[in-house]
Amino acid sequence: MIKNIISWKYFYSVAAFSASFAAGFFMSDAKIAGVASFADISAAGAVGLTSSAAVFTGSLVRSILSGAVGHNIVKLSALALIVIIKMFLEPKNDPKLCGINTFASVLASGIAVSAVIGELLYKLPFYGFYGAVAGFAAYSAALVIIGMKKRQVIDLSGTGGFSCTVVYILMISALCTVKLPALNAGVIIGSAVTIGGAYFYKQAGGVICGTLTVCGAFLAAKTVGTDIVLLPAAGLLTGFLHRQKPQTTAVGFISISFVLTALTGLTVNSVYSILGIICGALLFMPLAPYFSDKWIKTADGAGDTFSDIISTRMDFLSKTVKELRTESERISGMLALGGDRKREIEDNSERVCSLCYRKPFCWKSDRGNTYRGFSKLSDMTEFAAESFPSELADCLHKGELLDAFAKSSHEKAAAKLMEMRFSESRSILHEQLKITEELVRSAGERVNVRYSENISRSIRKKLEKFGIEPRSVIAYYNNKNRLLAEIYFSAECCPESSTRVCDLIADELHLHLDHTEPVRSGNEIRIRIFEKPLYSIEVAAASASADGSNENGDTHAVFCDGEGTAYVTLSDGMGTGREAAAQSRLVVGLFRRLVTSGVDFDSAVKLINSVMVTKSRDESFATLDAVRLDLDECGLTVIKSGAAATLIRHRGSVLKITSPTFPIGIYESSELFVKECGFEEGDIVIMFSDGISESSFPFIKELLLGGDDLRHIVNEICAKSEVFNPNIHADDVTVIGVRVTMS
Question: What is the pLDDT at residue 325?
Fold first, then answer.
């Protein structure tokens, strides 16, 4: 029932409105330091337009029911002004604007009311200070709320921690003034938070949470703060029980609080405070198993510094590889120019003319004519007496010169042939160095993840309990605040079923998890476990072999990298049959392995191209057609190397994506076409091999716009491929349909 309620598309909007209404209703009559609390005003200033209107409505209803509209006129006027201003500032929900809006609304409302009752000069400084404090609180609350929306985590580090401190103190202060029979809501919530801080973050967490709770209580009322003034000490001592069961920690916290209170003297109010602490402990016990550092970030920046060091080193190494490649290309260019005409003339002159008595005359008195004659001999391709240069008509060794230049001509031809062969090898080498440079640079890029030591330790203990020995476990939250865990095994200790590993971890963490297929690198195997993203994909495929072919030359694969990205790949090998199938399987298999190992798709294609070019002397190539789907945000990226067009149905129209690129394996350097496309839930992508003619596109467009049955669309396109094929020789056909749906 709860799942059905949460899946209702208006659930979060209704929940936010209800919570804002309750905040305005209960905080309307709250006090802080003896005056009306500004907590509801700050809350309205920090949230969006709809929620701020709910806060105003709750405060207005409470004022009407209690008959205090006149008494709260300044507050109600300020709330109304905040809502009105947010109508114009809603697209710019900036924390600074939230603070300024709150300050301006309180000040304007206070000035107006003070002017009416004739106390403007007397109350103006008060409302200025009151508005400034309320505005700062709204700014802090907006920072927390916007941070949670963007990163889905409460950031307690740096300025985020300061903002959370302000919000927490004001919340405790407001709750302490909420009237409950014999209990104090602020003490209950503050005690639960203090136990949680001590249990999960040891002594420091207990002291900090307890101190902030006492601070909020003193702002509400001196008596309330005095009764729980020893709460930080109780949090400190409870921190030593952080490795115990939640029930043990709660009992210890209650006992410590009671002893400390008894030592300072029991009163009626302190007894009520003990009751509040007991209720807070009872609240902590059922909630403790559901706490996760997924929602709390307490990093102090050391991890970021370490990431900066790794990134800087990798960037330096990448630049070193680039310098090596550049220097290698420069030296290769210099060596290619080594065999020039001048050296050939000097060598042949030394060989033929060194023993001739006419050498002084030819190379000194008549050097110009002699050099021109030798240059003509160097340019000749056929050597005969009839074509002997006239500048050397008086030469005594014509036959020997012809033989010498004929020999050097053959040597030049052989050297040129070798140079062409070496040039191709150098081009491949330089391309591979370039790929290495890009791989090193991409490996050094800072990843936006948050490591979880607690989850990593829990996963390891759970697996070891069932006899599974991982080499290492790395659990972290990505930038979408989804949990991912990478478990590395030695090949000898890797479990047979990755599904069992996933089930054990899901049982330990009480989460719905999925897993990737094992990826092997040397003697190590990695299994990636991940919290399911918001979207999933539906894929349908159909294929047909060409006439006379027993095997389809096309290969396709669907896989997920475990980080929230899904790939659908299709490769069409050269020709048809077994040879084409081998080439396409090689391309798809390498692409899948490289991407799932952590290589970005651009570098993966370059590596595959290098393998295809050098794997054999025979000409072999294959196309690559892939779509990359971001399952967190429903993003679509089309990737092509010599592949056929892709059709996308988006918002009632059909878009055709083509790429003017060559297949993989033709040239030393690969060509890659990449395009980001708009995509939404329910949109459809159609991929196909070269066996589908462009003349069938109107028919495919009609199918896409006429229905949502993905399997029917794919089967119809494949079945009608021969009808639209204008070629005499049929080709292998593969059609793939992809659609994104909510998980």
Answer: 61
SS3 of 595-627: HHCCCCHHHHHHHHHHHHHHCCCCCCCECEEEE
Contact 679/650 with Cβ under 8 angstroms? yes
Rg (CA), the chain: 39
Q: Two tokens at 177?
A: 């003034």
- Helix/strand/coil (H, E, C) string of 189-213? HHHHHHHHHHHHHHHHHHHHHHHHH
Number of Cβ atoms within 10 Å of the Cβ of 563: 20
Q: Are 484 and 530 in contact (CB under 8 A)?
A: yes
Question: pLDDT for 161-212, tens place per residue?
Answer: 888 888 899 889 888 887 777 788 889 999 999 999 999 888 988 999 999 9
Q: Give the integer Cα–Cα distance in Å for 248 and 195.
A: 11
The pTM of this model reads: 0.67
Residues 6 or more apart in contact with residue 740 via CB below 8 angstroms: 535, 536, 537, 538, 629, 631, 634, 679, 680, 681, 682, 683
Task: Note the pLDDT tens digit of each residue in 532-563.
Answer: 898 999 999 998 887 656 678 889 999 998 88
Rounded to whole angstroms, how far apart are CA atoms 502 and 479? 22
Which amino acid type is present at position 12? Y
Q: Angle CA(535)–CA(539)–CA(545) in degrees, nearest 5?
A: 165
378 neighbors 371 (Cβ within 8 angstroms): no
**C-alpha distance from residue 444 to each of 314, 441, 561, 607 (Å):** 5, 5, 19, 19
The closest of 270, 232, 35 to 129, measured between CA atoms, is 35
Which tops the pLDDT comparison, 310 or 102?
102
Model confidence over 143-167: pLDDT tens digits?
888 877 777 778 787 777 888 888 8
